[in-house]
Each structure stands twice: as structure tokens, then as C-alpha cells.
Amino acid sequence: MTNYTQIHQQSFLVSDTEEAVDKAAFNSRYQYEATKALKMIKNDLEYALMRGVQPSTMGTESYAGVMQGIKTFLCITCTSSGTSLSELMLNDYLQNVWNVGTEVNAIYCPMVLKRRISGFTANATKYFDQNDKRLINAIDVYSSDAAKMVKLFAHRHVTVSGDTNNDIVGINEDLFKVAYLRKPTVRELAKTGDATKGNIVLEATLECLHPHAGFLRSQCL
Questions:
Q1: What integer pLDDT is reported at residue 65 of this predicted model?
Q2: Closest CA to 182 of 200, 205, 204
Q3: What is the separation of C-alpha 1 from the centre of its chain, rounded to a whole number of angstroms?
Q4: H or E stretch covering 196
Q5: Of all helices (H) and strands (E), which one includes residue 87?
Q6: What are phi and psi of 36, to 5 degrees?
Q7: Eight-class DSSP state of 161
Q8: What pLDDT, in 10s, does the model give residues 153-205?
Q9: 8 A C-beta contact, residue 147 and residue 97
């Protein structure tokens, strides 16, 4: 399947005074700011990989390259407005993917739905040692008839501020890849004045290897 590469970049600036003085916790302010910029680019890339939407005029000179994200690649989509996620519903979603020839092995959802899934019983009772002072209420792997060993992740970018629904995304991670045209590179820019400028650039896209590589479900609770 096709996609466009998207350029991500983050600039930073460090004064020569800041670089020269003694610092606590790190040696070089320039390297410290470069590390922060790398983290910001990583977050931007993760957002694009999950939520990237190509404009209708994509491919013309009006827009720079924008990648298509996981949520817009998924063909198995449906809305269930006003309903709460149940274990039966989740198993139906997993079966929908199995029915078209692949299998979900990872689920990404907002924290509210991750907590709901952790409350599923799956006909099982949790037992704890009475001497253990910890109370554990988390499930990180879910197994069902239609999908074995599904990893569960709370993800900040599946649903963001302004979204009207809480979405849940299930994918086969073997069928999605991050393809780099240019891997992250830290470049020192031309020096002007009493400061050193830096810039980090990467160019990448999302590879989707199967049109039914997962499901997207939107619901309110």
C-alpha cells in the first residue's frame, strides 16, 4: 500500500554563556537541548503514525508531504455511539479481523478504556498471596479465541482533546512498519551572534502491508 513521507524537524538554541558556565546534572547545555528536541520529534512522529490524515489535495504543490496514520489506514471501522466497551464487544472486534485473514496482536486505547479492559474477568478469578501487600488491577496481555497474546497499551494519541469519542485501535504489528527516508540527524546551524543553533530533522512514513491489518472502533465510554 502507498504512503507519503513526512518531514519532522525541531530547532533549539543555546547561548555561549549557558554553554560556558558550570551546570548541575549535565555537562553540555547544547547536548541537553538536543536530547530534549529528539524527544519532542519522537512524540511528533508517534502522533503522525497514529493520527496522520492526508489532505484531499495531497500530491500537489499546495501541501508538503503528510503521512497517512494507522487510524486512517484501517478498513475495518465502525461507530458505536453511546455504548460502553464490553468484553463481548472486544471479542467481536477481534473476530472481525480474523474473519478477513489476519489477527490482532496489539491494542491501543485511551486510559479510560485500558482500565475498563483491565476489569474484564474472562471467566477467571484473580488470586493473591495474603502476605503480599500489593493490590494489582492491570492486564497487559489479553488472549481470546480470535486473537492470541494481544498486548494492551494505553496510548495518549488514540484519543486527544477535542475528540467526541474514545477510540480503540487493534492492529497486527507485523503488518505495520516505520520506514525512514532520513533517520534523525542533529545538525549545527550557522552561528549568528552569541549563541549556537541546532536543528534535528527526520523524514519517515508508515508502511501498511495489509488492507485489513486491524480494526478501529469509536464509542463514547
A1: 84
A2: 204
A3: 20
A4: strand 195-208
A5: helix 87-99
A6: -65, -40
A7: T
A8: 999 999 988 888 889 999 999 999 999 999 999 999 988 889 999 999 999 99
A9: yes
C-alpha gyration radius of the chain: 22
Phi, psi of 178 (to 5 degrees): -95, 120
Beta strands at 166-171 and 214-219: parallel, antiparallel or unpaired: antiparallel
Cα 10 from chain centre: 19
Cα(42)–Cα(37) distance, rounded to whole angstroms?
A: 9
Question: In terms of residues, how long is the chain?
Answer: 221
Q: Which DSSP letter does residue 216 get?
A: E
Judge whether 176 and 208 are in contact, CB under 8 Å. yes
Strand partners, 217: 78, 168
List % helix, strand, coil for the chain (3-state, nearest 5).
Answer: 25, 30, 45
CA distance 40 to 199: 12
